[in-house]
Amino acid sequence: MTDPTLLVLDADPPPRLGRLTGRARIAHTDEAQLAARLPTADVLLVWDFTSRAVREAWPGEGPRPRWVHTASAGVDHLMCPELAASDTVVTNARGVFEQPIAEYVAALVLAMAKDLPRTWELQRRGEWRHRESQRVAGTRAVVVGTGPVGRAVARVLKALDVRTALVGRRPRTGIHGPEDLDRLLSRADWVVAAAPLTDDTRGMFDARRFGVLQPSARFVNVGRGALVDEEALAEALAKRWIAGAALDVFATEPLGPESPLWRLPGLIVSPHMSGDTVGWRDELGTQFVELYERWAAGRPLFNVVDKQRGYVPGH
Amino acid sequence: MTDPTLLVLDADPPPRLGRLTGRARIAHTDEAQLAARLPTADVLLVWDFTSRAVREAWPGEGPRPRWVHTASAGVDHLMCPELAASDTVVTNARGVFEQPIAEYVAALVLAMAKDLPRTWELQRRGEWRHRESQRVAGTRAVVVGTGPVGRAVARVLKALDVRTALVGRRPRTGIHGPEDLDRLLSRADWVVAAAPLTDDTRGMFDARRFGVLQPSARFVNVGRGALVDEEALAEALAKRWIAGAALDVFATEPLGPESPLWRLPGLIVSPHMSGDTVGWRDELGTQFVELYERWAAGRPLFNVVDKQRGYVPGH
């Protein structure tokens, strides 16, 4: 019996795959070769999770991988109708990014409350200028997205005594449904976008929703760039509809040097790094190896994505 | 019976003192007039808590205020041997600053863990550069100072799942004594100075102690500037004995534009603002009015400073 073929979409070999020696024939591919090689693969590991090549390259019919794993929480970059309709199983990296992203959101919330961006600017100019800052305890946050990331964000914000509401696709214990969103937004101090990108969520933070917010509100996106109408956010900041924002994800990544977002007053721009703490690549590699061992043994996989919904359902 | 004379050291009248109309003759003084006016006062309110004029102006003998209140947590700026030896009662603003300062420390810790200063620098240059950041949960902090500020800092850090040790003047339940300090420092990721400035604590963070720290450790001072040997800290940063630091307080405040601290790589400088959230002046005024009403009625005061130790004892 031949070992299954594991095709890895990435120039650099992921860590930990050495553990699969003798149990997988590992081949690497770049985006250009992906379409030609997909039919030969039993398993596809999308290690370069910034790539959108899978959507283009996925075979309409004929031989194809039986299992696709992406080293990311979101699957929007690889899902296409053909993959969704196929019997190929898709898994994601749920479990690796939640705590780091939650801490990152707390870092941004506290940095904005304590006016740290201005502190840095004044430090650069050697200028001592005392300001009053804001207390975080007792403020109100709305977290949109009730997957592992949204729930981890809510947990950390609550630990800081922020009154935090979670909003999901449907109401359930401790979670608000979409019908409550605008009311919650209208009195929020902090709005955190942590939803997967689906047809329901694309562009959900638009001019109307920014208009609902209080002038003192601040917006944070650690989900996917396309959750937000970036032009509407720019306008909301320029017109002082809201007090500030922080984006870690963008409609187009990397953000080009010509983007006006870099220099928008009141906006913090970071390069899609909220979940990436030291050791994260090792964790992703270890998680994939564990999944591969289950798959090779015919045991059930974890982190199986509902391909219609676009995320791992549960809880 | 004449109303007591309340002398206020500040150019601007503090908020809320209007409530004392008909119960106090309120007079304002600047630093220059303080010595001449002190003997006429029953109560001194040190509203300008950056002033060191009380130490100079305190009468050696003869009439003097029976009660001094300072709108600050620390009393180092006003204590002198004559005041300590007198029967004048000293109270402070314990209760106003703790939660804001604790949040500020959390903001600095998270900002350093998530590399936010570098993010701002890169944003200013319009440069997309992904980095790995650090997970805060599971790291180790040492908080020096077990007063309300130190304990609030420890509470917030623990809420972020940081393993936090408190170090005080003597060991007791949940608190380490000075004999544990160096051992704790040697494995700390975060060191927070939140102690009052006393003869015991002055200059306690010196070259030897920075040498004990791990190269990955970061140091935060929200106590008093003179807790730290600033030259030793500058050297520790320049020589990479430690990974970073944040100072909100300095030996001399305001920090002059010529200070090398503004431009020290790895150092975050902020202008003594950690405790000052919106509404803090109102809170300080309300607290003083409440103390005044007790004092005028002959009831016991709260926040009474042990003048030998230099802080409000207890817990």
TrEMBL record, chains A, B:
Residues 107-274 form the D-isomer specific 2-hydroxyacid dehydrogenase NAD-binding domain. It comes from the Bacteria. The keyword Acetylation does not apply. Transmembrane segments: none annotated. InterPro entries: D-isomer_2_OHA_DH_cat_dom, D-isomer_DH_CS, D-isomer_DH_NAD-bd, NAD(P)-bd_dom_sf. CDD domains: 2-Hacid_dh_1. Residues 29-305 form the D-isomer specific 2-hydroxyacid dehydrogenase catalytic domain. Keywords: NAD, Oxidoreductase. Belongs to the D-isomer specific 2-hydroxyacid dehydrogenase family. This is Hydroxyacid dehydrogenase.
